[in-house]
# Entry
Amino acid sequence: MPVAFTEEERRLTAAVSGELDHHGAKAVMEELDRRIDQALPRQLTLDLGGLTFTDSSGIAVLLRAWRRMSQAGGGMRVVNTPAQADKVFRAAGLGRIIRFE
Amino acid sequence: MKLENHVSLEFPSCSSNEGFARTAAACFAAQLDPTLEEINDVKTAVSEAVTNAIVHAYPDTLGKIVMKLRIREDHSLEIVVRDWGVGIADVEQARTPLFTTGSEERSGMGFTIMESFMDSLKVRSAPGKGTTVTMRRKIARRVGR
# Structure
């Protein structure tokens, strides 16, 4: 469950690929936590273009990243959400809290 | 002509079996010629039910999970995920969106997702008696493929 990070002037992009389920979620959360703490970005962009599957574990990952960024006084947006993931996030009403572009 | 098929899979409650369970269910459902969306809905619901069993049923140990898949006469898929673990004290509370007895890695949305993606969801459980989750999803018959 690789996450690829790019950083540019306190704008951090995390590209998630593969399947994001309970089995892989903890590692992704920890990696995101670590990079956010390290970079203290103003803006976090989660690029889900390579996400082949997610379930409610993905909801937990997004919410945690959002909380972390809010605490740090930054913003977060999610881009390139595939259809399957989008359906999961909509079922949870995540769009009311998190910015999807 | 009656079309009925079924399979039963037994595996321990390791999280590495979450992906296996999803793929196995998708493989079995393939004979119904589902759309990509229908297959993804099945995989997602299976993932939630199996993950619940793996996370909650057997704290501090590994236990048995059985997933039964059945193709019914009306071209629907029935999925049963069963464990013999700790059970749920208050099923109605457990099914409330955002409710979780898990750690902060859990969103508490598992049952909500299952309800959204399946046509029906039944949860039978009692403390010490384990949990049985039964879901059904009708797969549309496609013409002329």
